[in-house]
Amino acid sequence: MFHTLIKNLSARWKSYRYRFVPWIALNFKNRTIRGVPKGSEDKVISDKQVEDTLKTLFTKINGVSSKPEIVLGVMRDVLGFTVEKAKSQVGGTGVYVTNGAVPKGTVLAMYPGTVYFTYEPILLQSIGNPFIFRCLDGLLIDGNDKSISKLIYRSCSKRERSGPYMTSDMSWLSSDGLLNPLALGQYVNNQSKKFPANVVYQEYDVTDDFPLHLMKYIPNIRYSSTHHNTETRFIRTVILVSTRDIKAGEEIFSTYFTMVY
Ligand SMILES: C[S@@+](CC[C@H](N)C(=O)[O-])C[C@H]1O[C@@H](n2cnc3c(N)ncnc32)[C@H](O)[C@@H]1O
């Protein structure tokens, strides 16, 4: 009987398709589901566009001071807009476009955090944690910037550094300085009737050919060491892409409920 229970649970988990894990999804009564046809991979812009945006922004930020006003100034010059955290219109903290305008189909944020493969232990970190994001292939990203999640991200980042090079951004965990101004996607709230979604999530895997000196701006790190895992050395990132033009002053909303059918 126990065996059947585990089998059923595991089958249900495999067919689970929402972006946020069940303990977050349960909080929402009125779920508007975004359907994605199976096999479409759910990409609204190409990997090449994502890569170009990240490389261009990181190259311009590289070497400037980590003072937020300086970094945001560079972001404004390069991308034509800035995004920042502020009190949400629906609950807690949210993310707003604070300057300029975001055209449709633009990378405007990233979902930072520790990346867990399906076989890695996340239970302890996940209890009461509303920041666990689920990728379409089941990988989980813990974007919580507090408590045990924060300690784990920091220690994995230190483990992965490559000689003088940091291979991930830790600045989203504190207010000591800003490296990657896009790394605030974990604070984007779920859409509602009054505030329909204006962004979607999209997976983007950073591979070995990404310039090593720009890796310090990648706000994701693998829970397990990449060095022992030659087949899967990529770093999963998740970006948020605008689905319409967004003006300064508007809050960003996504849909936590993406259903693959
Ligand atoms: C990933 S966090 C988003 C950031 C969060 N607002 C905060 O201040 O930390 C997810 C949590 O935000 C809240 N949230 C997100 N969308 C919401 C909405 N439309 N209405 C009310 N609360 C929402 C819920 O508490 C949810 O568990």
UniProtKB/TrEMBL annotation:
InterPro entries: SET_dom, SET_dom_sf, SETD9. CDD domains: SET_SETD9. The gene is LOC100373154. Residues 81-257 form the SET domain. PANTHER family: C5ORF35, SET DOMAIN-CONTAINING PROTEIN 9. This is SET domain-containing protein 9-like. It comes from the Eukaryota.
